[in-house]
Amino acid sequence: MDASRGWVAWQGIREPFSGKYASTAMRTYYFDLMDGIPTRDRQGLEFLTISGAIEHSKDLAKRPRDDPRCRDSALSVVVLDESGTEIHRERVYPDRSESSARCCGIA
Length: 107
Description:
Elements: E1 7-10, E2 13-16, E3 27-34, E4 38-39, E5 45-47, H1 50-62, E6 76-80, E7 86-91
Antiparallel strand pairs: 1-2, 3-4, 3-5, 3-6, 6-7
């Protein structure tokens, strides 16, 4: 931990220091589905940390993997912060090539 800069590095993720002097305000993160054309998350969810939002995106990406109707290899869950900045992209099918893409009926 680099306390002088107020940042904590954990598993390659850098996020604001959460020591006793840090704010405990929840931040809103948005989880868009992206396959070339984004399906926007207009509501968002609140998390204390960036890592919490990223873990949630990984859980969301697991859901369509078992759906036989969904075969879009380009499908990703994109995490955006309150300012609209992309902070993480989790591919739903990380092992599939782009050439095997088919339409996916996820809403």
